[in-house]
Amino acid sequence: MKSSPKLRPCLWDGLVVLLVVVLAAVCALAVWSRGNDGGELTAVVTVDGTEAERIPLKDAHDGERTYSGNGYTLRVLLSPEGIRVEEADCPTQDCVHTGTITRGGQSIVCLPARIIIRLEGGTVDKDAPDVVIG
Question: Which residues contact 69 (CB under 8 A, 6 or more apart)?
């Protein structure tokens, strides 16, 4: 019976391991150093999959906009602090019950009207929880 050959690492194996470690470190630094200074808080309104409007909230001094989609109408109130759907004629009213959104990454969705309002940019609150369950 033949014995299996003894495998020993060679120089090329060490170089491959070193390359993988360096590549992983570069990717990690790219993700973590990017940060989210975010710039100004901007509301992005999408109607039926198409971006309808971008509104910098710093310029929105108690403004009001109306959006229509799929036979439904939403009345949206804007302020420098956030954005909310004041009134909608959709049957579920989920967009109205969402309330005011104030941080980047938050969104208001009206499924019957196919309208999405999301906030982009802004600063990240380091003390805020990542996920709330319950």
Answer: 47, 48, 110, 113, 114, 115
